[in-house]
Amino acid sequence: MPVLEVQGLTTHYLTLRGWVRAVENISFNVEQGEALGIAGESGCGKSTVALSLLKILPPGGKIRGGKIVFNGQDLVPLSESEMRRIRWKGISIVFQGAMNALNPVFKVGDQIAEAIKTHEQGVSSSEVRERVAKLLETVGIEPSRANNYPHEFSGGMRQRALIAMALAANPVLLIGDEPGTALDVIVQAQTLKLLRDLKDRLGLSMILISHDLSIIAETCEKVAIMYAGKIVEYGDARAIFKNPMHPYTQGLIKAFPSIKGERVRLTSIPGQPPNLLKPPPACRFNPRCPYVMDVCKREEPLLVEHSEKNHLAACHLY
Amino acid sequence: MEVQGEVLRIENLRKWYPLKRGFFETVFSREELNVKAVDGVSFSLSKGEIFALAGESGSGKTTLGKVLLRLVDPSSGHIFFEGKDITSLKDRELKPLRRRMQIVFQDPFESLNPRMIIKEIVAEPLRVQGEIEVDEKGRTRHKRLGEEEVEERVKKMLSEVELVPPEEYLYRFPHELSGGQRQRVAVARAFILDPSFIVADEPVSMLDVSIRAEIVNLMVDLVRKSSASIVFISHDIALAKHIADRIAVLYLGKMMELGSALTVVDKPLHPYTQALIAAVPVPDPDSKRTKDVISGEIPSPVDPPSGCRFHTRCPYAHERCVNEEPALREVEEKHFVACHLYD
Q1: A87: which DSSP letter?
Q2: Inter-chain residue contact A214 with B242, CB threshold 8 Å
Q3: Residue of A21, A74, A183, B235 with fewest CB within 10 Å of its CB?
Q4: Is A190 strand, coil or helix?
Q5: What ipTM was predicted for this assembly?
């Protein structure tokens, strides 16, 4: 049974001008020990998905449909107090620019300890100290540094401290929202290596959200490509990168300058993402698609398997 | 001493920022602390060249970009622009040169005045600098431009950056445009005076990947058409590979490697460049990492390591590296490295 099963999730934001249809009818699974990458650009809804899973949407955000089945239980109808038992212990999250999320006036070790004490009752102080030390070790930080303040840690170390904090209550699923952004290339590579190690060693399931396809390619077994609130391509990472089916995926992969190979004139996808107050009819990519046909403007394509197993695309070309 | 076709040359440029310290430290400690952002960088830029400054945070690349335009004054060293030493020129003397030196900033949301319409943003350089006229006797005269001509020039520039039809954009405010469109406006503003030298500081890193190429290609095309030179600052070395003629790799305020873009990326010599390139992720799930990621992080620019700044993280570091700073030497044709491995 998958650790997480999302079925038909629909999340909108209520604004003065109407409902912004940020995420519409999204379905995906995460198996135990698997990393799912959710890729897409600004405004595609990927962060909204993360916030929906933990039910920490900002004011105005509302899950308007669908199910989030975590370990067999649907989270959507749960109350706040019930959700609090799931957060951190079942699913935890490391946000973008996390290095700045640490409280500057408390020692790092104390902040990690706080995560443990908040989510678990009756843990003795010595046990908490031991667990903090072990957590720091797990993320590659000297346990003695628990007594340092955040400003004594470098950016990469702070990011790792936050990962340690996210693991404090032994979650089953870790969500990383743009884990590479705001980090230098080398520190980013170190962080991704750490995440891969954690996945292998602890059997941790992960959802990595990023606009950077390369870091998803390196760390995830499964990928969901999002565009304008919908998943346009979904399946095995290798299959999608080797043989991208959806024109948006193709355009996106081509837009990344490759560090290997010859010099080429860089390509882009013309146009811009749509306004989600009033998205385009049927296929939301149709205004920018180089292969657009009449049917694309009338009928929304379904996300289904075509010729390859474990490789779904929502496109009328197939 | 001017080399023909050389637009810019810097010699041993340094920019140190003094650190403010607490009261007790000032009284009891003599040591002055400085953030050594740029610490002895030299290179020259030819006409029409696209020169990439690559590096991570703390490398000094952004500070260097500002110093080149004298938006920030250097602590020591020299800057020669079109053969003239501009290091210590006063603002009044710099002003006529400034029309030929321009900048495109990283943040399309902060670099445009939100209270100015697009027409005024792009026209501002024209209004500040006016037009230079050369009369029959070869004397230059400063001329203010008429309103009609300003509008014509703005419209022409907006068309060149593909904001068409230009009339539709003249009277809009920045918040009405997308990130990519605002960056086009920033490019228009930079190119309207037909500069010979532009500093582009991470011009696309805040834009979605799928629209970066448009802006980058636009800048490259404009540069090639006008044979302006551009210093392209980027932490994205993969991007630099595809658009730059040469790449300089900076680390903690010093230049570690300099060469043609393809050579530096495909055949890096400096261990730092090698580590940097090995760390760049590739959108291919099958590509295995050939090298392990190096450990550690960039040390503080306040107290950089002795000798070679990279020695604390270098897999090949030996005793000489701790004590002696390697000089930037030409190791292959037009390929410079600062590393004792190649001495």
Answers
A1: B
A2: no
A3: A74
A4: helix
A5: 0.85
Q: Which domains does chain B have, with CATH numbers?
A: 6-100+193-342 (3.40.50.300)
pTM (2 decimals)? 0.88
Lowest mean pLDDT among A92-106, A176-190, B17-31, B124-138: B17-31
Which chain B residue lies closest to A269 (C-alpha atoms)? B210
Nearest to B16 by CA among B61, B57, B63: B63
Report chain A residues whose CB lies below 8 A from the CB of B164: none
Of A184, A241, A268, the CB nearest to B213: A268
3-state secondary structure of A117: helix
CA B246 to chain CA centroid, nearest Å:
13
Q: How far apart are CA B245 and CA B40, in angstroms?
A: 22
Alpha helix (H) residue ranges in chain A? 46-54, 80-86, 108-119, 125-138, 155-167, 185-202, 213-219, 237-242, 247-255, 294-298
**What single letter denotes the amino acid at residue A93?**
I
What pLDDT digit, counting tens, does each position of B32-67 carry? 788 899 999 999 999 999 999 999 888 999 999 999
Q: How far apart are CA B211 and CA B204, in angstroms?
A: 9
* Set of chain A residues whose Cβ sits within 8 Å of the Cβ of B261: 263
Amino acid occupying residue A79:
S
Supply φ then ψ for residue A22, to 5 degrees.
-70, -40
Query: Is the Cβ pair B241, A155 closer than 8 Å?
Result: no
Q: Taking CB atoms and an 8 Å limit, are B214 and A270 in contact across chains?
A: yes
Alpha-carbon span A227 to A229, nearest angstrom: 6
Closest alpha carbon to B311 in B301, B325, B300, B292: B325
Number of helical H runs and strand E runs in chain B: 12, 14
